[in-house]
Design a protein that fits this description.
The protein is about 55% helix and about 0% strand. By secondary structure, the protein is mainly α. The chain has 2 domains: about 80 residues, lambda repressor-like DNA-binding domains (434 Repressor (Amino-terminal Domain), Orthogonal Bundle), CATH 1.10.260.40; about 40 residues, no CATH class.
């Protein structure tokens, strides 16, 4: 599975999604045509077209993928949807994922999104008891 170790600087061109798709296609050994044939969202049946993938890999402008297209590309590339979401957020929206040396921070963030507002407040209060704020 592709690794993303450090976020890019704000001055460099963002190509994380393009690079990831190329890497996934290389890992699967699929031609662009065959990869596009496999890029079908298992939920909606929406397919990612060959031309879009070709333009993406060629560095031409493309419309950012929506969730069905991301699921389709995850299916074709055999990777977790979250990896594609992170790379798309980086390239198309300038949003860098949470990084930590252990990778645990990302896992915690993803899990907290499933909590109710009350559970999140309880978690914040708990964290304040075991990890004091800076300067305390």
């Amino acid at each position: 599975m592709p690794a993303q170790d450090t976020p890019p600087t704000s001055d460099e061109e963002r190509t994380q999604f393009r690079d990831l798709i190329k890497e996934l296609r290389g890992q699967t050994g699929l031609s662009l045509v065959r990869f596009a044939e496999k890029a079908v969202d298992p939920v909606t049946g929406i397919a990612v077209k060959y031309g879009w993938i070709h333009r993406l890999e060629s560095g031409e402008p493309v419309k950012p993928p929506q969730l069905p297209e991301l699921r389709a590309l995850a299916a074709a590339g055999g990777c977790d949807l979250e990896i594609l979401q992170d790379a798309a957020g980086q390239q198309f929206h300038g949003v860098d994922p949470v990084y930590s040396a252990s990778g645990e921070a990302r896992a915690f963030v993803r899990k907290t999104e499933r909590l109710t507002p009350r559970q999140r407040e309880q978690l914040r209060a708990f964290l304040d008891t075991i990890v004091p704020a800076e300067g305390d």
